[in-house]
Specification:
The protein has 235 residues and is an alpha/beta fold. The protein is built from 9 helices and 7 strands, in the order H-H-E-H-E-H-E-H-E-H-E-H-E-E-H-H. It folds into 2 domains: 173 residues, Vaccinia Virus protein VP39 (Rossmann fold), CATH 3.40.50.150; 42 residues, no CATH class. The chain has a 7-stranded mixed sheet, sandwiched between helices.
């Protein structure tokens, strides 16, 4: 029986609650099958995934704000006979811990800490330069808007490739090359969102923006410039 199956048959209580909180079982199984001894791994958040990382033999760091949570995970590893020799807990908010973290090249990253904005983006921002080319970043709860923003960036960036999703809520990005963020948005037209406007205005704004970002729309803008300049000069 795999460790994932064992955890599924007897889910441990690691978060101070009776119910099991953790990654989808498919994601845990993916970690168990993918991570190998000697890999450099890191996760934001902690739980059953930490147990699977520890059992893999990777050099693993996990960032969690709760020492009590870390203690429960260590106790569960000891109960199961899983070595924690290569497991390091960084206690604190990921926004603070990763700012002062001593970077190292990473083979595998799991972003599953705080899900409120801007934490998923900050986690990715601090870690993405240190993911090795070919390395993987798992993004859990990818349907949540703060996480989905990271997914959308990876989907439209030439430095990343979105792999087949592991579960309905777990996205996987593979790093293809180092990336220089120049500050310009490069998302697709279909990802534009005008939800801050009243419903009727959304349709107009979306139609206008979509048209004026096409080749034809840009030609219309160029053609209109002389007329606009001329109108400004009129009394």
């Amino acid at each position: 029986m795999s460790l994932t199956d064992d955890l599924r048959n007897a889910p441990p209580s690691l978060h101070g609650r009776q119910e099991f909180w953790g990654l989808a079982w498919e994601a845990l199984d993916f970690i168990e099958q993918t991570v190998k001894p000697g890999m450099a791994t890191l996760e934001t958040g902690a739980g059953a995934s930490t147990i699977v990382f520890a059992a893999s033999g990777s050099e693993h760091e996990t960032v969690t704000p709760s020492q009590a949570e870390a203690d429960r995970i260590l106790a569960e590893c000891e109960r199961r006979g899983i070595s924690t020799e290569n497991l390091t807990f960084r206690i604190g908010s990921s926004a603070d811990v990763l700012r002062d973290w001593q970077p190292r090249p990473l083979d595998f990253v799991l972003i599953d800490g705080a899900h409120a904005f801007p934490y998923p983006t900050l986690d990715w921002w601090f870690l993405h330069p240190h993911v090795k080319t070919g390395g993987l970043v798992l993004l859990d709860d990818a349907y949540m808007p703060p996480v989905a923003a990271v997914v959308e960036h990876c989907r439209t960036s030439g430095a990343w490739r979105m792999e087949e999703a592991i579960s309905f809520r777990t996205a996987v990005a593979r790093k293809l090359a180092d990336e220089v963020i120049d500050g310009e948005w490069k998302g697709s037209i279909r990802s534009m969102n005008f939800s801050y406007l009243p419903p009727a205005q959304r349709v107009v704004a979306s139609t206008r923006q979509r048209f004026f970002t096409t080749r034809l729309g840009l030609k219309v803008v160029d053609a209109a410039q002389p007329l606009l300049r001329r109108s400004r000069r009129l009394p």
